[in-house]
Amino acid sequence: MTYSIVARDPGTGQLGVAVQSCFFAAGLITPYLEPGVGAVVSQAFADPSYGVLGLDLMRSGCSARETLDALLVIDADRDLRQVAVVDAEGEVAAHTGRACVAEAGHVEGLGFSVQANMMLNDTVPAAMKEAYVRGDGDFAERLVQAMEGAQREGGDFRGVQSAGLVVVSGDRHARPWEGRVFHIRVDDHAEPLAELRRLLDLARGYGAMERAMERLRVLDLEGAEGQVAEAIARLPRVIEPTLMRVALLVLAQRLAEARSCVRSFGGDRALLELALRRHAATGTFPADQALLAELLAP
User: Fold this and answer.
1) d(Cα 57, Cα 51) in Å, to the nearest integer?
2) According to the model, what pLDDT value does residue 1 have?
3) Cα–Cα distance for residue pair 55/38, rounded to 1 Å
4) What is the pLDDT of residues 13-60, one digit of tens each?
5) Residue 296 half-sphere exposure, CB side, CA atoms within 13 Å?
6) Residue 297: what pLDDT?
7) Per-residue model confidence as pLDDT tens digits over 226-262
8) Residue 83 CB neighbour total at 10 angstroms
9) Positive or negative, the Cα torsion across 45, 99, 188, 40?
10) Looking only at Cα atoms, what is the longest distance across the chain?
11) Which of 15, 138, 142, 162 is most enclosed, with most CB atoms within 10 A?
């Protein structure tokens, strides 16, 4: 009922999973990842313990192969499972139980595994592999392209319902949530991959906004401005990126550009002005009342 890819990007070390299924919330129940540790997908008659215990084993030093073998040997229902694992070094291991509903299978590659069950055609894993290997763009983009390759080949014979994408850092973090790059879910949608793409673009915009905040904390105004420009391009109707750009322009004493930025906002200008006033009142926007009046003048 599901097809997925689990992978480690050789360029960045990032770990990722993309999944699509004709089942509700596959992005919640299929992927398990931890920065700098590994990634697991558990599907078909999925057992969450493969994800939870798999990460525990890899965190303790087990390889992907050792992890999967240890979990399979204690599972009396292993023939019903479809599981794939990649560790932080890029070793992969996969299992398709002989009782998984046809068509079912997996294909391993260098640093990744693609797997599917309830496929319309048994060529779906090979199509996923081809799409991923020949794909372009960054790691997240290529993971999504793998899902699109599966769909073009026929995908799940029942149709589509949900999709998910998770990408984490290749480095361990004392606070693992800080290593999350993307975590996007489409739990129920007529076109889950198209919606996943839309949300990925939004996530990139919000990511640029977060990077701009990081640059601001170290007073790197030039670096922050570049990130804010990307955020505005992706989120033209969202208040926060424009608010940040206006603040940057005020700090740089480029007041004419700041006024122009307010006037050209692509969303609700009244709400932007309200946000500017309230942030100025709390001291989180660098303007007194006189300067604020100048910025908001008709």
Assistant:
1) 10
2) 65
3) 6
4) 999 999 999 999 999 999 999 999 999 999 999 999 999 999 999 999
5) 18
6) 87
7) 999 999 999 999 999 999 999 999 999 999 999 999 9
8) 29
9) positive
10) 74
11) 15
In the chain, what are the domain boundaries?
Answer: 2-189, 206-295
How many Å apart are CA 187 and CA 23, to the nearest integer? 8
The CA distances from residue 105 to 24, 86, 100, 108, in Å, are: 22, 17, 9, 10
Per the prediction, the chain carries an average pLDDT of 95
CATH of domain 2-189: 3.60.20.10
pTM of the model: 0.91
Cα dist from 128 to 101, 190, 207, 226, whole Å: 19, 21, 27, 35
Query: If you average pLDDT over residues 117-146, what whole number do you get?
Result: 96
CA distance 172 to 113: 22
Say how far apart CA 291 and CA 133 lie, in whole Å. Answer: 54
Phi, psi of 283, deg, nearest 5: 85, 10
Beta bridge mates, 116? 3, 105
**What's the CATH number for 206-295?**
1.25.40
Burial class (CB in 10 A: 0-12, 13-18, 19+), 19: buried
pLDDT tens digits, 66-97: 999 999 999 999 999 999 999 999 999 999 99
